[in-house]
UniProtKB/TrEMBL annotation:
The protein's name: PqqA peptide cyclase
Residues involved in [4Fe-4S] cluster binding: 20, 24, 27
Needed cofactors: [4Fe-4S] cluster
EC code(s) of this entry: 1.21.98.4
Pathway info: Cofactor biosynthesis; pyrroloquinoline quinone biosynthesis
Gene name of the encoded protein: pqqE
GO molecular function: 4 iron, 4 sulfur cluster binding; cyclase activity; iron ion binding; oxidoreductase activity; S-adenosyl-L-methionine binding
Entry note: cofactor: Binds 1 [4Fe-4S] cluster. The cluster is coordinated with 3 cysteines and an exchangeable S-adenosyl-L-methionine.
GO biological process, one term: pyrroloquinoline quinone biosynthetic process
């Protein structure tokens, strides 16, 4: 068994708020977000950033929800830059008018990642349950005007993956330098909608071929990143690059999480920055140490030659699919539970081939739906 070496966190994700003007069906936020109150105030966030930076964190992502809903965003960005962080805003674009982007630029914001739901207004607005498509295009122009690299993100699933060529064309029209085509990860709201969102294998194969053809055609004009959904892989992803390894997520209420979904896992005592320093949380807390190293692993992970590479996969996925957070991620073909992933693919394909919108209606991320899941 390997004793874990604990390196400092590298990447601090500041989930400033779970509030969001959009209602995306694939959102990874907790489904009961409505019951999670008491957002950290400006001073608390500043303390978190100072302590994380002092430990060695180098990059910060401001995310949510929609981080632009926080009036103090430019104050936080300015402090992050002063501390020496590389600063990244992850946004739907809603609320990013010219005055706001000018003030963020002045605060020293380094990078903006703008999400779209699709290349068509109809699907973009349907999936987010808002009328935001035209607004996002205006925001894309503002991002260019203020001299930022244009980084577009589109979460892919069964409903928009057939439009992948149009999505790439839209990115080229908007002069994007990077386009992240990230297949949905099945947590939070996306897990509730999995049967309606999981693409078919045929869709994936076709999409990957289209991406590769565009890579040939456009060269370095726009870098296309295509992330295959791990349900279709034979080996699990190295989730978070290993538990408590580089990633520190602070949720809006101050919960310190080794990954976005860790709050859902049984057996963890989730620490809060209102009660503990970042140093204590990172090095000493039960939650951050729980899945470090390999002593927690079961077979087949424990004796697997690949365990240093994938760390047994994703703990949250293992829990969601098997009920045991220490199980081998069922995405792995060596897992005794691999059949549950195969079954999910088969079931979703059956749904895709039938008109099932009534039997499996999409669950939108809304406050009232969240209340239903608050339990
Ligand atoms: Fe929690 Fe993968 S999302 S460990």
């Amino acid at each position: 068994m390997t004793q874990p070496v604990i390196n400092p966190p590298f990447w601090l994700l500041a989930e400033l708020t779970y509030r969001c003007p959009l209602h995306c069906v694939f959102c990874y936020n907790p489904v009961n977000y409505d019951s999670i109150k008491n957002e950290l105030d400006t001073d608390a966030w500043i303390r978190v950033m100072r302590e994380a930076r002092a430990l060695g964190a180098a990059q910060i992502g401001f995310s949510g929800g929609e981080p632009l809903l926080r009036d103090d965003l430019d104050i936080l960005v300015a402090e992050a830059r002063r501390l020496g962080f590389y600063t990244n805003l992850i946004t739907s674009g809603v609320g990013l008018n010219e005055k706001r982007i000018a003030s963020l630029k002045q605060a020293g914001l380094d990078h903006i990642q703008l999400s779209f739901q699709d290349s068509t207004q109809e699907m973009n607005d349907f999936l987010s349950s808002t009328k935001t498509f035209e607004l996002k295009k205006k925001v894309a122009a503002l991002i260019k005007k203020y001299d930022y690299p244009m980084v577009m993100n589109v979460v892919l699933h069964r409903h928009n993956i057939p439009h992948i060529d149009k999505i790439i064309e839209m990115a080229l029209d908007l002069s994007a330098e990077y386009l992240e085509l990230a297949n949905t990860q099945y947590y939070g709201w996306a897990m509730k909608n999995r049967q309606q969102l999981l693409p078919t294998r045929e869709q994936l194969v076709a999409a990957e071929a289209t991406v590769n053809a565009y890579r040939e055609k456009i060269g370095k004009q726009c870098k296309l990143l295509f992330v295959v959904p791990d349900y279709f892989e034979e080996r699990p992803k190295a989730c978070m690059n290993g538990w408590g390894s580089i990633f520190l997520d602070i949720a809006p209420d101050g919960a310190a999480l080794p990954c976005h979904n860790a709050r859902e896992l049984p057996g963890l005592n989730i620490p809060n920055v209102k009660e503990h320093s970042i140093q204590e949380i990172w090095y000493e807390s039960q939650a951050f140490n729980f899945f470090r190293g390999d002593s927690w692993m079961q077979e087949p992970c424990r004796s697997c030659s690949e365990k240093e590479k994938d760390f047994g996969g994703c703990r949250c996925q293992a829990f969601l699919l098997t009920g045991d957070p220490a199980a081998t991620d069922p995405v792995c073909a060596k897992s005794p539970n691999h059949h549950v992933v195969k079954l999910a693919i088969r079931e979703a394909a059956a749904v895709a081939n039938a008109d099932t919108s009534k039997e499996f209606p999409l669950v939108f991320r809304t406050d009232s739906n969240s209340k239903r899941f608050a339990g």
